[in-house]
Amino acid sequence: MTPACLTLPGHPAHPLTHLARACALSVWMAVLAFAISVPARAQTHWDLPTGYPLSNFHTVNIELFSKDVDHATAGQLKITVHPNASLLKMPEIKRGVQTAQVPAGEILLSSHANEDPLFGLDSVPFLATSYADAARLMRASRPALEKKLASQGIRLLFQTPWPPQGIFSAKPLTSAADLKGLKWRAYNPATARIAELLSAQPVTIQAAELSQALATGVVQSYISSSATGYDTKTFESLKYFYDTKAWLPRNAVLVNQRAFDALSPAVQKAVLTAASDAEQRGWALSMEKDRWYTEQLAAKGMQVAAPSAQLKADLAKVGEIMTAEWVKTAGAVGDTVLRDYRASH
Ligand code: PCA
């Protein structure tokens, strides 16, 4: 592919004659065309929708994952993160990845609990209430979760926990009876079920719409993390936060298996390494930021308190009921996962 002009006699490269300059340009264009056409240098672009805001620690972690992949692959795989449900609403992301509408995406696992109880295990109240237990629960359920997702053409890349779940309320809570009749924001089937058991009025609202719902008085109470309380400026509407540490739900970053298979082996390896790093970093970030987020809630005027003994006892009962319900619906797979979790202590 040597352009003919290079072989022309009597045209030294320096100083550049008119013709030589034209030739130099055509050589560069040929080089460029070659570079673009070489498969090893081919660039793949992935869109990765998420349901949470840009400043949220999950999003920060996913952006770092994207940068790591970019560096490790010398730009062969570019991942664009679309935060805050800007590309797809959070509950639609899983299906989007499954149907290859998007190659990758971040989901809240437990929002898909109605499809399979496995997705909701992390949100069974009081089953795993510390980071250490939540990590054990993740490890015990990972094989079954990966298998389930694989059957849907999805590969699990990494999982990151939200901080422990506490109750935000417009009024002080001395027992669960104080929640009776309050408008309660739910974000997954478990949080809707809690409302039912506490005789609160559930309304399902995703995180991206929560600020608005709080500002317009549609929500008087909800259970979630310090992170979401901060992200949604809950302190502007609700005054109380009870740090119940009821469970640590996880987000998962998923990729369509065929999109993954289409990458070169070296790029696949880079993605898996970056994913494993992101999982470790995500757990550390969650833990570290929980303290900061909780301090911020107090600094912005919220009363942050531990739940009273009565509220704790009332919620523990809810936990017992929901654990029994989970065991009943999750069948043999659920039994195995729970047995492995309990054996890991
Ligand atoms: N924040 C998300 C899910 C769990 C959490 O801590 C939310 O409230 O939607």
TL;DR of this structure?
The chain is α/β, with parallel strands linked by helices and 345 residues long. 48% of the residues lie in helices and 16% in strands.
- Helix count, per DSSP? 10
The CATH topology corresponds to D-Maltodextrin-Binding Protein, domain 2
Number of strands: 11
The largest sheet is: 6 strands, mixed
What overall form do the CA principal axes indicate?
globular
The termini sit apart by: 66 Å
The CATH superfamily appears as Bacterial extracellular solute-binding protein, family 7
CATH architecture: 3-Layer(aba) Sandwich
User: Strands across the major sheet, in which order?
Assistant: 7-6-8-5-9-11
Radius of gyration, Cα only, in angstroms? Answer: 26 Å
H and E string: HEHEHEHEEEHEHEHEEHHEH
Q: What fraction of residues sit in β-strands? A: 15-25%
Q: What does the average pLDDT come to?
A: 91
Could you characterize what this model shows?
The chain has 345 residues and is an alpha/beta fold. The chain has 10 helices and 11 strands. It has a single domain (44-343), classed as D-Maltodextrin-Binding Protein, domain 2 (3-Layer(aba) Sandwich), CATH 3.40.190.170. The strands form 3 sheets. A 6-stranded mixed sheet has the order 7-6-8-5-9-11, sandwiched between helices. It has a 3-stranded antiparallel sheet with strand order 3-10-4. A two-stranded parallel ribbon has the order 1-2. Helix 2 (57-72) runs antiparallel to helix 9 and helix 4 crosses helix 10 (309-343). It is globular. Residues 1-25 and 27-38 have low confidence and may be disordered. Bound molecules: pyroglutamic acid (PCA). Pyroglutamic acid binds next to helix 7.
